[in-house]
Write a sequence for this structure.
DNA sequence: CGACAATATTTACATACGTAAAAAAGGGAG
DNA sequence: CTCCCTTTTTTACGTATGTAAATATTGTCG
C-alpha cells in the first residue's frame, strides 16, 4: 500500500520516462512545460513517493526563496500575532519562512543571524531584543542582505528600514485621553531595556510637561528579576498600594502585560479600577494584547495594527529583494497609527 | 573597516593557507585538528567574513543535524511555552531546530511535513491540529523518519511514539477536587475537534458516573465560529447566565482559555466565582495557562509539566535518531502527571 | 641524525539538482 | 510528405561542501 520511495530526480526520470532537466523545470514552474508532458509527470508522481531535496535545490538557485524572521521571544501574544501575520503574508508572496527565536538571549539571536547568512536567505525581518542585541552582527546582516526591522528600533541602528507603530502618536492617545477625562496619570514603566517602553516613557514625560502636569514615573527599577511583565507590574503596584500610594490615581502602564499585573495588584487590594467612578483608580495599558477584552475589568488600551505592520514589513522586504533602491542616507520608515480601545478599566 | 567577504571554503583555504579538507573538518569538529592549526585557522577567520554554506554542508552529511517541529498555532501561550522548552532542549543537544506553524490549516501543516521530508530532517516533533490533520501525510512522515507526537494524539494514529500529559489523571484531579469540596461541576467544553478537550470531557463523564452524580455538558456546539477559546467560553456562559442557569454551580472548563472567557461572563453578570463561598459559583480550568495567576479572581487549574514534556520529547526523539529500537506494536508513550493549582476561583 | 607517529595536503569522487547548448523528436500546416 | 517550429532529450558542467585514500609534512624521541 505504501508507494515506492524515490530519492533523486535521476531515479525519478527513469521511473516515469521523462528526462531530468524536464523534471527540474517542472518542479520549478510547470507552466513552462507542455500540458501533455505535465500530465505524464503528474501521473507518474502519483505512483511514487518523491520530494525534491530542499538543500540541493537551494544550493544553486540564484534565489533561495527563503525569508528569515528573528523574534526576541515567543511567550508573548504580541509577537505571536505579529509572526502569524508575517508568515501568512510571506507565504502568500511565495516565500518559505524560517523563524528563529532569540529566547531573550543575544547569543542565540546572533546564532540565528549567522544561520540566515549561511542559508543565503533572500532577506530577513528582525524584531530585536532590547538594548542587548549584538549590534555588530545586526549590522553585518543588514549589510549583507535585504533587512527590515520590525516592532522596535535599537538606538544603536537608527538608519535602517523599519516598520512599526508610531509610538509617539499611539501612546500619546492614551496619555491625552487620561489627562482629558480625569486625573493625570502616573507612568508605570519597566527597567529601561525595552525600546518601546522607553519611548512610551519619554512620550509620557513630554506630554505631561506640555500640559503642565507633574509627571510621576514608577517601576523603572525591577523588584524581582524574573523579568515577566505581569509579575513586574503586580509587584511594583502592590508595593505602592501597600504604602497607600496612588490608590485613587490613574495608572498608565508601559504595556498591557504590565497592566494585567497592575489589575491583579488592584484586585488584591480590593480596588476596582474603572472609568465610571470620579477620581477613583484607573488603569490603562498599550498594545491591545489579545486578552484585554477578557480581563476584569476589561482593559482600556491602545490597539497596534499588527496586521498592517506584518504585511507592510513583508511587502517592503519583498520590494528590497526585488531590487528596490535603498536610500542609505534616508531609509524607508513606515509608522502605523494606534487607535484607542476604551473599555472598562479607565 | 568591514572585513573582506569570502564565499567558499576553497577561497578561504587559499586565503589563510590551510587545505580545504582540513577546514571542512575544522568546521565540523575543531577537536579533530591539532591545536596549532586550529589557532592558525581562527586567526585567519578573524580577518575575513565567512560562513560555511548551510545547504552545501547539509547536502551530503549523513545527518543534517536538524529537528523539525510542527505546532498547530502560535497564538496560545501553551504552545509557546512548550516550543520554548523544545527549542532549548534541542539546541542543548546540538541540533538546529526549524519550526513550522500550521496556523490551524491542514494544508499548511501538510506543507510543513513535506518541507521536512525534503530537508531530510533527522527527526520531527509534531503537535497535531485537531481531527483535521491530514492523516496520510502524518503517516508518511512517521514512516520516513524518527517521529514523536507531542501534546495531543489523534485517534487516527494511536500507535505512535508520544509524549504528553496524562489527561485522565490531570483532569481527574480537578473533577475530584470540585466534587469533594463542593457542588459537582458542570463541564463547559468545546466543539469536539480538540483531542485534549475531548479527553477532558470523557474523563469528566466517567468520573461523574463513578461518583453517582448527574453530568451536565455545555458548550460543545459553537455559538460563534470565531474559534477563539476565550470568546467561546464567554459566549456560552453568558448565554447560560442570561437564562438564569448554573449561576451558583461549579463550572469546570475544558481548558484555561475557555475558563478566562467564563470568568469574564461571570464578571459581566456581577458574579464573583470563588471557593470561599459555600454553594456559590466556582470556575476552574486546566493547563495552568501562564496568565492564570493574574486573572480576577486567580484561576484554579491543573498545571501541565511543560518543561518535562518538552525535554522528554526531545530526548526521546534524539534516542530514536541515534537508532533506538522502536517496537512498532507497542511504541513508547510517556505521560506526565498534572498537579492541582488551587487559587481563588474554585 | 634518523625513525616513527601524528597530522596535514593532494587528489579524486560524491551529494542532488540547476542550467546552458546542441541534438533529436514531435506536431501541425502547407 | 516535407518543412518549420516547439518541446524534449542528451550531454556536460556548475553549485559548496563531505569524505576517503594516498602522499607529504611536521614534530618528537632516542
Amino acid at each position: 500500500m505504501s508507494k515506492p520511495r524515490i530519492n533523486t530526480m535521476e531515479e525519478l526520470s527513469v521511473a516515469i520516462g521523462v528526462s531530468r532537466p524536464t523534471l527540474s523545470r517542472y518542479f520549478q514552474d510547470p507552466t513552462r512545460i507542455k500540458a501533455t508532458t505535465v500530465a505524464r509527470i503528474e501521473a507518474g508522481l502519483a505512483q511514487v513517493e518523491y520530494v525534491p531535496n530542499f538543500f540541493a535545490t537551494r544550493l544553486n538557485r540564484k534565489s533561495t526563496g527563503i525569508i528569515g524572521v528573528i523574534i526576541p521571544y515567543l511567550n508573548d501574544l504580541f509577537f505571536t500575532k505579529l509572526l502569524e501575520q508575517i508568515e501568512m503574508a510571506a507565504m502568500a508572496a511565495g516565500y518559505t519562512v524560517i523563524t528563529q527565536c532569540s529566547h531573550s538571549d543575544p547569543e542565540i539571536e546572533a546564532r540565528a543571524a549567522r544561520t540566515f547568512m549561511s542559508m543565503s536567505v533572500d532577506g530577513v525581518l528582525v524584531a530585536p531584543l532590547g538594548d542587548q542585541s549584538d549590534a555588530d552582527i545586526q549590522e553585518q546582516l543588514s549589510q549583507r542582505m535585504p533587512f527590515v526591522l520590525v516592532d522596535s528600533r535599537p538606538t544603536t541602528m537608527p538608519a535602517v528600514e523599519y516598520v512599526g507603530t508610531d509610538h509617539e502618536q499611539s501612546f500619546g492617545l492614551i496619555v491625552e485621553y487620561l489627562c482629558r477625562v480625569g486625573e493625570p496619570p502616573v507612568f508605570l514603566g519597566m527597567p529601561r531595556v525595552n525600546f518601546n517602553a522607553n519611548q512610551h516613557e519619554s512620550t509620557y514625560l513630554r506630554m505631561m510637561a506640555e500640559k503642565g502636569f507633574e509627571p510621576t514615573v514608577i517601576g523603572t527599577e525591577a523588584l524581582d528579576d524574573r523579568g515577566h511583565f505581569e509579575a513586574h507590574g503586580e509587584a511594583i503596584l502592590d508595593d505602592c498600594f501597600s504604602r497607600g500610594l496612588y490608590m485613587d490615581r490613574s495608572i498608565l502602564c508601559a504595556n498591557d502585560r504590565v497592566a494585567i499585573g497592575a489589575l491583579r495588584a488592584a484586585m488584591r487590594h480590593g480596588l476596582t479600577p474603572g472609568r465610571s467612578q470620579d477620581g477613583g483608580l484607573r488603569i490603562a495599558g498599550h498594545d491591545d494584547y489579545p486578552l484585554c477584552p477578557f480581563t476584569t475589568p476589561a482593559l482600556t488600551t491602545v490597539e497596534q495594527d499588527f496586521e498592517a505592520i506584518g504585511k507592510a514589513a513583508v511587502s517592503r522586504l519583498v520590494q528590497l529583494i526585488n531590487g528596490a533602491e535603498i536610500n542609505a542616507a534616508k531609509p524607508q520608515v513606515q509608522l502605523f497609527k494606534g487607535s484607542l480601545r476604551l473599555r472598562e478599566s479607565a
Observations:
- Chain A touches chain B through 54 residues (CB under 8 Å).
- Chain A has three domains: 9-58, 66-165+306-338, 167-303.
